[in-house]
Amino acid sequence: MSFSTDQFRLDGKVAIVTGAGGRGNSIGRAYAMGLANAGAAVVVADINAEGAQRVADEILAAGGKAIAVAVDITSKDSTLAMAQRATEAFGGIDILVNNAALMAELGSLPAAEIPLDEWNRIFNVNLTGALLCSQAVIPAMRARGGGRIVNQVSGGAFPAVSIYGISKLALTGLTTTLARQLGRENIAVNAIAPGNVTSDAGKLLTPDDSPFIKFLEMNVAMRVRGAPDELVGTLLLLCSQAGAWITGQVIHVDGGWVLRP
Ligand SMILES: NC(=O)c1ccc[n+]([C@@H]2O[C@H](COP(=O)([O-])OP(=O)(O)OC[C@H]3O[C@@H](n4cnc5c(N)ncnc54)[C@H](O)[C@@H]3O)[C@@H](O)[C@H]2O)c1
Questions:
Q1: Is 31 among the residues known to form the active site?
Q2: 152 Cα: distance to centroid of ligand 1 (angstroms)
Q3: Helix %, strand %, coil % for the chain, to 5?
């Protein structure tokens, strides 16, 4: 069969996006709307239940399929309940986007001084949270004969020069490990590494006049900042038949910030 752009469609698929309901303009919201637009039924999952409901309502208003689920990804019970809700509502799970993370709320504590509690708090969400969500959905993916997991990492992990960066580099390790271990079961696991994105959190963390933006202006090949919607095409590739032979990869969507051979 020759290629058709229909291979990007996700009709009949069920997708969970974590961290899709927190701030107004977030990457998770763009991902949830994009997946719904491609035909998937979307579980909008966030620790912020009200925000998740708002995004689910937006999808429904646009004619898509969605439910909101309150989840704390650091709790095994909570992630299992999220997977169960998804299966009850839509009959299975095909796609998990591990997007929830702590980022804008983190200080810039140096590794030499960071208290162990703070270190654990960051890793519990940014790394263990993605593991727990993956463990919760993998049985449902196996039952469907395969699935896709996309982990949201960051250009800030290449190289890691902050605790946040270490957490995203570790999540990259989880990506390649799960990819190797689940590939024969037709479960593909990839990562998206965004550059500086104009989500509400991104603008809060790095305002236009911040030193980091000046640094990027000297180093990024194209535009320094992208909009959340500019990540969606890559997500659809990784979640659809069009990207069926891609696993264990980190796709940088960053205007040419992290240049890799
Ligand atoms: N904005 C950027 O410039 C940028 C760049 C690179 C990577 N990222 C990554 O993209 C993702 C989304 O970023 P964003 O800018 O939309 O930020 P955001 O803060 O709007 O999104 C993070 C979401 O995670 C949720 N969350 C936090 N802890 C949770 C928990 N324990 N359980 C469930 N949900 C929880 C928050 O409520 C929030 O909705 C994050 O993984 C972030 O690290 C962002």
A1: no
A2: 9
A3: 50, 15, 35
